[in-house]
Design a protein that fits this description.
Length: about 150
């Protein structure tokens, strides 16, 4: 599982050095092979290849006439780029994806359990504040809600 957030500066070629604490796990999970694509929030996500392949297997089963499936394919599949972690623990974020996500030089890499989100550092605090506000104001419509018992 991946957790925590780290501020990272991309190099001149658009490469992101992954924090050392994740590198061995990524090599173990996927031999350093990953996919970068968008999230629904228009961040980027970095997904170990085996996790990505599971997602694709689910999506390919959707009816070809389903509008939501087509939208998911447009967002996730058509923008997916396979990347390899190099010997220095870096991955290249393609320019087209960097531009689409509004990424310049400084990013936040956030562990999201099975994947990572990559977002411009300028968006991180605002989006974190929005998440806090949403959770604080959320009212469960049922006592069976998954999050009711989710405490630490």
């Amino acid at each position: 599982m991946f957790r925590g957030s780290t501020q990272i500066s991309l190099d001149a070629k658009g490469r992101m050095a992954l924090p050392a604490r994740y590198r061995d796990r990524l090599r173990e999970l996927s031999e350093g092979k990953m996919v970068i694509t968008y999230t629904l929030e228009r961040y980027l996500q970095l997904v170990p290849l085996p996790t990505w392949l599971q997602f694709e297997e689910k999506l390919v089963k959707a009816p070809v006439t389903d509008k939501r499936a087509k939208a998911y394919q447009m967002i996730f599949i058509s923008n997916a780029v396979e990347v390899d972690m190099d010997s220095s623990g870096r991955v290249l974020i393609p320019q087209l994806l960097r531009e689409g996500a509004g990424i310049d030089k400084h990013v936040i890499l956030s562990g999201m359990l099975k994947t990572f989100h990559i977002l411009p550092d300028s968006r991180y605090q605002t989006d974190l504040d929005d998440a806090f506000e949403y959770v604080k104001n959320y009212e469960s419509s049922t006592s069976e809600d998954f999050f009711t018992d989710l405490t630490m």
